[in-house]
């Protein structure tokens, strides 16, 4: 048995790939002005180019900054940097003038393409933005910093007294900007408070921010705080600045945390200059945010339900070309996916019993079409004993049903959601694995079901098999834009879509590719899990002493020199 992997990720006598978690800081200069009566309202979208694929995948959107041609964004993409792999990254800049989530509805300001290695190695990389026919239109500035594992957050609140009057016909409209110092010596924006209108004595709302974001876990690293007077034009007036550290502010309110705002230009011009106001710390609380593994060790169980697509578009089961063909010497795509993911998830389920549902088939005895039936054909109990039992029930089912259609997801999602709704205390978290070959035919109902499920302890993973167009699945996998249906918005992202063909084909295959599939499928589960627990204010219970209830040592999670599955992801997920 291998020794347990510590939260730091270091394990003596072992090997791992040279990977790091990298946070990118993004700013722009000299953007095109697309608005008639004001400046552009820019946003940057980050795309990655998955290894071995001919496509770009959107992974992040910054916030929109109003009325500026030189934005400095506080919302930063976090990417995994692999030293031995050329990782292409694309940045597209848009002028946002409406609430639409469709990028095509906004003015395109330009794009830049580079590799993650270029950003990491350069310290600060400034690239020209290009539009049609190579026309240059401003630049984008990129810096990278490696993030450390840190589970702490701070809750802070500040007020200001006697700030400088910056408006002719009023007082000031002040807001604060917090900037962390990076290893390259630069300062990057990490948080902005709200604007308080027409006052020289503002009290800003309290906010929470991770210690990793604020100082990358270094309690003594300088944090710069700038105070501005908001202007509609986007040219905000600088009032003053001060410096602090996390260790300092954790001492709480008092003289040590009363900061005089200094405007260097005024200080240089005026011999009697004493400052531009005072910022007082009102409150500081250090909060320990539990990790995914803290909940698992405290007894939270993952309940995995598998739903299998038995529609006719999979092909006749007796044909070797069918996705459901069971007559060969190797596993078909459905069985491959079940085994790859099941080998990971089984170690987090104490009884190793998995409910398995089918949909889209005509079932015995009368051939009625069903979109929610038990694959083992037990009248009341859908559970199968371990992954071997799941595969046996699946093979038996293929010989008893008639593949039909259509492809409806909503019934199986609602089935699992019904059980998740009875366990909202954090004791169980439900995971629905849907394996399908086709385009969803009940998209409106599926969206409604997912939005309802987003308020429950539940995640959905969709594995697409075959060569179908899975564009609609990307809409459900709302990584950067919240899923909506009419006026309803998902409370959180709970869907992950993975195309099976990326892990099975002429260029890939074997055990390693199936473990890579499992890693891709399970990558977002810890983050989705923690977002539910945080939203509901649920804390993990103390670690259980009955070792049979805990996952085994992570040898089942290792292949080659790379940790996969929940363990490697969970060590990075803290909020």
UniProtKB/TrEMBL annotation:
- Organism lineage string: Eukaryota, Metazoa, Ecdysozoa, Arthropoda, Crustacea
Keyword Repeat assigned: yes
Q: Which residues form a coiled coil?
A: none
* Native source species: Darwinula stevensoni
Q: Offer one example of a GO biological process linked to this entry.
A: cellular response to calcium ion
Where does the UniProt annotation locate this protein?
Answer: Cell junction, Focal adhesion; Cell membrane; Cytoplasm; Nucleus
Q: How does it assemble?
A: Monomer. Interacts with ERBB2 (preferentially with the tyrosine phosphorylated form); this interaction occurs at the cell membrane and is increased in a growth factor heregulin-dependent manner. Interacts with SHC1; this interaction may mediate the binding of CPNE3 with ERBB2. Interacts with RACK1.
Q: Does the keyword Membrane apply?
A: yes
Per its UniProt record, what InterPro entries does this chain match?
Answer: C2_dom (IPR000008), C2_domain_sf (IPR035892), C2B_Copine (IPR037768), Copine (IPR045052), Copine_C (IPR010734), VWF_A (IPR002035), vWFA_dom_sf (IPR036465)
- Biological function: Calcium-dependent phospholipid-binding protein that plays a role in ERBB2-mediated tumor cell migration in response to growth factor heregulin stimulation.
Q: Record's family?
A: Belongs to the copine family.
Gene Ontology molecular function: calcium-dependent phospholipid binding; metal ion binding
Gene Ontology cellular component terms for the protein in this record? cytoplasm; focal adhesion; nucleus; plasma membrane; protein-containing complex
The alphabetical list of record keywords is: Calcium, Cell junction, Cell membrane, Cytoplasm, Membrane, Metal-binding, Nucleus, Phosphoprotein, Repeat
The protein here is known as: Copine-3
Matching CDD domains, A to Z? C2A_Copine (cd04048), C2B_Copine (cd04047)
Q: Name one Pfam family in it.
A: C2
Positions of the C2 domain? 2-129, 136-259
Primary location group: other
């Amino acid at each position: 048995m291998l020794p347990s992997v510590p939260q730091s990720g270091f394990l003596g006598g072992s090997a791992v790939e040279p990977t790091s978690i990298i946070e990118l800081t993004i700013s722009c200069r000299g953007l095109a002005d697309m608005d008639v009566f004001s400046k552009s309202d820019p946003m940057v979208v980050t795309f990655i180019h998955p290894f071995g694929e001919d496509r770009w995948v959107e992974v992040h959107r910054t916030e929109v900054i109003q009325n500026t041609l030189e934005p400095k964004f506080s919302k930063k993409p976090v990417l995994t940097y692999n030293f031995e792999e050329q990782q292409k990254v694309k940045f597209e800049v848009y002028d946002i003038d409406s609430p639409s989530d469709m990028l095509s509805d906004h003015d395109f300001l330009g794009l830049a393409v580079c590799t993650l290695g270029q950003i990491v190695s350069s310290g600060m990389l400034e690239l020209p933005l290009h539009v049609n026919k190579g026309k240059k239109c401003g630049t984008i500035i990129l810096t990278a910093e490696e993030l450390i594992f840190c589970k702490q957050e701070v809750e802070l609140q500040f007020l200001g007294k006697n700030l400088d009057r910056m408006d002719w016909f009023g007082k000031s409209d002040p807001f604060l900007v917090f900037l962390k110092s990076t290893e390259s010596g630069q300062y990057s924006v990490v948080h902005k408070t709200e604007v308080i209108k027409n006052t020289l004595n503002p009290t800003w709302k309290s906010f929470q921010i991770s210690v990793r974001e604020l100082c990358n876990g270094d309690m003594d690293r300088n944090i710069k705080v700038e105070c501005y007077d908001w202007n509609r034009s986007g040219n905000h007036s600088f009032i003053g600045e001060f410096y602090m550290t996390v260790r300092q502010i954790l001492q709480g309110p008092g003289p040590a945390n009363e900061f005089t705002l200094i405007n260097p230009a005024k200080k240089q011009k005026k011999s009697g200059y004493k400052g531009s106001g005072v910022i007082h710390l009102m409150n500081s609380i250090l909060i320990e945010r539990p990790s995914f593994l803290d909940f698992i060790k405290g007894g939270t169980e993952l309940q995995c339900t598998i739903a299998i697509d038995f529609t006719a578009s999979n092909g006749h089961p007796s044909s070797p070309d069918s996705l459901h063909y069971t007559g060969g010497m190797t596993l078909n795509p459905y069985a491959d996916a079940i085994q790859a993911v099941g080998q990971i998830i089984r170690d987090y389920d104490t009884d190793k019993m998995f409910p398995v549902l089918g949909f889209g088939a005509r079932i015995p005895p009368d051939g009625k079409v069903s979109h929610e039936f038990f694959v083992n054909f037990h009248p009341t109990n859908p559970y199968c004993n371990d992954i071997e039992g799941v595969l046996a029930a699946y093979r038996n089912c293929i010989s008893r049903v008639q593949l039909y259609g259509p492809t409806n997801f909503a019934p199986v999602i609602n089935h699992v959601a019904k059980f998740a709704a009875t366990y909202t205390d954090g004791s169980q978290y439900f995971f629905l694995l849907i394996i399908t070959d086709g385009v969803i035919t009940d998209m409106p109902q599926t969206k409604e079901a997912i939005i309802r499920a987003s308020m429950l302890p539940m995640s959905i993973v969709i594995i697409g098999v075959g060569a179908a167009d899975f564009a609609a699945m990307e809409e459900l996998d709302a990584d950067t834009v919240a899923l909506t249906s009419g006026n309803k918005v998902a409370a959180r992202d709970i869907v992950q879509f993975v195309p099976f063909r990326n892990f099975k084909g002429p260029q890939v295959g074997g055990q390693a590719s199936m473990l890579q599939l499992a890693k891709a499928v399970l990558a977002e589960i810890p983050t989705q899990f923690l977002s539910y627990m945080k939203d509901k204010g649920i804390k993990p219970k103390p670690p259980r002493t009955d070792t049979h209830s805990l996952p085994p040592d992570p040898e089942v999670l290792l292949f080659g020199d790379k940790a996969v599955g929940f363990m490697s992801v969970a060590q990075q997920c803290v909020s």
